[in-house]
Specification:
two-stranded antiparallel ribbon; 285 residues
Amino acid sequence: MAHKLLKGLILIALAGFASCTNTRNLLQDTAVVARVGRHKLFRADVRKFIPPDVSFSDSTNLALQYINSWAAEQIFNDMALAELPKEDLDVTAELEAYKRSLLRYRYEQHYINDRLDTVVSIAQMREYYLDNQSLFKLERPILKVRFIDIYSEVPDKSVILEKMASNRPSDVLEVDSLARANAIRYFDHSEEWMDAAELAHEFGVDYGTMLSNLKNSYITVTSDEFSDIKVAYVREIKRDGIAPFEFSQPQIKEYILSSRKRALVENLERNLLTEALDREQFVIY
């Protein structure tokens, strides 16, 4: 019953506020812009929410968004006060626990920021990689590719597509030059690994569909709508197994830094307890 009443009150309140289309008058002519029971929303509160440089249309939408959100919050709060049993209304313990947790988190972050060594060497990353191979299993295939998005009628298109497969320095330079002059988009990741999902985004399809178009080292997707052709020359592909070290480096660094943060926090807690015991601030009976 309470749930139905709550839903009805929210729908009535939101419908009423959403009908207030003349937000400019609402914000300029009256001090109170909305009311839910005994609760009032004042003009100054809404103005704080709206940036000064937005258009009238955007300010209208932002104002109504804020009013609706405020109204729902007041209605939920009133219904909770009216319907919850007395023992559930006392949130003192939860608030105190949350306050302690928040203060501890902020202190830990301050402590970490002052002491964290963020320099991670290649040797440290390689050692971590070799010791934790199971963490670096591929979730998706990775590829080394050259990618181009080019209009179908470009005269040099066939030359570009043919020489994309070449590793001769002169051909690579020629493709790069022609692509910059004629392509909608071009990049060369033939020396570095690329996530299949990231490459699939360039084609505008999921990576499974993209890989189903892989034939003779080329992935080709033609668009009749824009008269362009998207092509990736796949120099190398790794479909499963352990990700190569080079591809895993950003992830390895995050793991190492995370480990250092945990160590700092553990040392902080241990040191604080030891100091408190030494000063007899902390006594176990």
